[in-house]
Design a protein that fits this description.
- The structure holds two protein chains of two kinds.
- The radius of gyration of chain A is 22 Å and the shape is elongated.
- By secondary structure, chain A is of the alpha+beta class.
- In chain A, a hairpin with a 2-residue loop joins strand 1 and strand 2.
- Chain B is mainly alpha-helical.
- Chain B is 56% helix and 7% strand.
- Chain B is built from nine helices and five strands.
- In chain B, helix 7 packs across helix 9.
- Chain B starts with a helix and ends in a 12-residue tail after the last strand.
- The chains are: A alpha+beta, B mainly alpha.
- Chains A and B meet through strand 2, helix 5, helix 6 and helix 9 of A and helix 4 of B.
Chain lengths: 192, 253
């Protein structure tokens, strides 16, 4: 595909104007160009915005492309805007977010059951921060939650598929055996 | 009287035959197994017994109900506790497995949470444009919305809703005054002449009067001055005086 300088410039302008990631499809619609041409233009832009060249980077996030600041500029940006980009997550929030990310759509009672402690305040905060959103109701009427495009954007993910397989954190058989042993011992101690 | 009546209740059951109070004693001493005793049979025997005697003594009946209820509770507890024990027998292992599965799940997601934390940290310092859409693309124009914050505008919007409307005169509506005492004397008048039906007592009367008359009738029944019966739902209510009791003119005043 030969590059079209005109299209590269237009795509760059659209990315600058939009605060949400733009998919190649959306860009193709707006530029009235083919999706292949748009993808080629994005590749040209990606080279031009390669790390270390500009203060801005081209990122593929949340199912589309978007411009983001280079992390090296953070100190100056913080002085300009006075507020850090996003505060970190508390352990409870991170756990709740992980459960929603992997098991979505999932209801709060289910989250609570997996965590073993209430997830009410954590999920409220995640909702406030726009990382999760409501996704209809379960058959029992409980509100279901899923992650938002904002979640993908802030966590640097192209799509949910980029999350590693949950089985990656399966405990080893030895760890499982040890856990079972400990549980049974605790049970016996209580029974006697 | 009470003790005699219940002691008289002879039972002939699968696991026991003899008087009811002996059965109670044996159950309490655990010589008769409550689990094998069909309490329904006891109740049926009592009902037969009542029928034979041909009259219902409230005190005896109450005592019987209390005793049977106590037996039922005792029996249901016996049945439950045995089940509980069975559950406990299987449970430790199963509960441990379930708990284990849950702990493994929790562990996985704790690790996943740590991973998400790392992802977020890796994105530290990355900022995105947060651009509000330009004014001409907004669905509502902000300065038009601002106008509604003006207290004057709000006040006008709420208009006269906060004013009390003038009170509505109800003087033209006459209040129906029908008293129970009135209807009582009406019914007593009819009773003096003999039996009558409720329909006769309220012939041509309005709904309010019908209701109050029924109320008066209840009062008469309570005082034992009248008996009434109705063969079927919505059927005629026949009312007649109680012959053996002289009507007491208590509420007449």
């Amino acid at each position: 595909m030969s590059e079209q300088p005109e299209l590269v410039r237009t795509v760059e302008a659209l990315l600058f104007l939009s605060s949400d990631p733009l998919s190649p499809g959306e860009l193709a619609d707006a530029t009235e160009a083919g999706e292949g041409a748009v993808v080629a233009a994005l590749a040209v832009l990606a080279e031009e915005y390669a790390p270390g060249l500009r203060g801005i980077r081209l990122r593929e996030l949340g199912g589309g492309w978007t411009l983001a600041s280079d992390p090296d500029t953070e100190d100056a940006a913080r002085r300009l805007f006075s507020r850090p980009r996003a505060s970190t997550l508390s352990p409870a929030q991170a756990e709740t977010l992980a459960i929603v990310a992997y098991l979505q759509p999932i209801s709060r009672p289910e989250i609570t059951r997996i965590r073993g402690v209430s997830a009410d305040s954590a999920s409220a905060t995640l909702l406030d921060r726009g990382l999760i959103e409501e996704a209809g109701h379960s058959q029992f009427g409980a509100v279901l939650y899923r992650t938002t495009p904002q979640f993908l954007k802030l966590f640097g993910l192209r799509s949910l598929d980029e999350l590693p397989d949950i089985a990656r954190w399966d405990p080893t058989p030895e760890e499982q055996a040890e856990l079972r042993e400990r549980l049974l011992r605790a049970g016996e101690a209580r029974a006697s | 009287m009470t003790a005699v009546a219940l002691a008289n209740l002879e039972l002939d059951l699968d696991v026991f035959s003899g008087p009811f109070d002996l059965l109670l004693t044996l159950v309490l001493r655990e010589e008769v197994d409550l689990l094998e005793l069909q309490l329904a049979e006891v109740v049926l025997a009592y009902l037969d017994h009542l029928e034979q005697r041909g009259e219902l003594d409230l005190e005896t009946a109450t005592e019987f109900i209390v005793l049977v209820a106590a037996l039922l509770e005792l029996k249901s507890r016996l049945m439950l506790s045995s089940e509980e024990q069975e559950l406990l027998d299987i449970e430790p292992e199963q509960a441990a497995e379930e708990l284990l599965a849950r702990m493994l799940d929790a562990r996985r997601f704790r690790a996943a949470a740590a991973h998400l934390g790392e992802l977020l940290d890796a994105e530290h310092g990355v900022r995105f444009r947060i651009a509000p859409p330009p004014p001409n693309l907004r669905r509502a124009i902000v300065h038009a919305a601002d106008g509604s914050h003006d207290p004057q505008v709000l006040g006008e919007a709420i208009g006269r809703m906060l004013l009390m409307p003038p009170a509505i005169s109800v003087r033209h509506i006459s209040t129906l005054r029908i008293t129970v005492a009135e209807r009582l004397s009406h019914l007593r008048e009819l009773l003096r002449r003999g039996s009558f039906s409720f329909d006769e007592a309220v012939r041509g009367a309005d709904r309010m009067t019908v209701a109050v008359t029924l109320f008066a009738l209840l009062e008469l029944y309570k005082r034992g001055e009248a008996e009434w019966e109705q063969q079927e739902s919505f059927g005629e209510i026949a009312i007649h005086g109680r012959a053996h009791e002289a009507p007491a003119e208590v509420l007449a005043g």
